[in-house]
Amino acid sequence: MKVNIDIDDRHEDTSITIQAKEWTKELEDIVSMIKKRKPQRLFGISDEQTVLLDPSKIDYIYAENRKVFAVMGNKRLEIKMKLYEVEEALAGHDFMRFSKSVIGNINQIQRFELSFNGNLCVFFQSENKEYITRKYVAPIKEKLATGGMD
Asked: Is 118 exposed, middle or buried (0-12, 13-18, 19+ CB in 10 A)?
């Protein structure tokens, strides 16, 4: 891999261009590292108060009845964003898609149990649990096996 850096007063903003023959895991890791540099704030609503959320403390985030909620231990806070927007905001953190309606923090996973239908039941350190549908099991296992967690 070749790295070129061009520092010049003529440049208005910092810009990163990646040129590659194909998308690889290495490129995915590089993009993830770059995105981690930009802190993204998430706000949750609890008892009519707006609370700043620490992504590292969130177990999972889910959508239900057109609303999005963050689960942290025994707390459930509403987030006034769409699930895909939250997923993008947390791209630099170790959140992965668990199902169409759930994204989870893989750093909070304590253990798994295989379900009879091929899904995985994930238990978080807080003892909350959520299911990973078959479609998303392989990518999560791969990320965990390759040391994807911080």
From this structure: exposed
Give the Cα separation of 122 and 145 in Å (integer): 15
**Could you identify the residue written with the tokens 């590089």?**
30
CA distance linking residue 49 with residue 55, whole number of Å: 18
Contact predicate 36/89, CB 8 Å: no
DSSP letter, residue 103: E
DSSP assignment letter at 26: H
| pTM listed for this prediction | 0.70
Read off the tokens for 37. Answer: 């540099």
Q: What is the pLDDT of residues 90-110, one digit of tens each?
A: 877 889 999 999 999 999 999
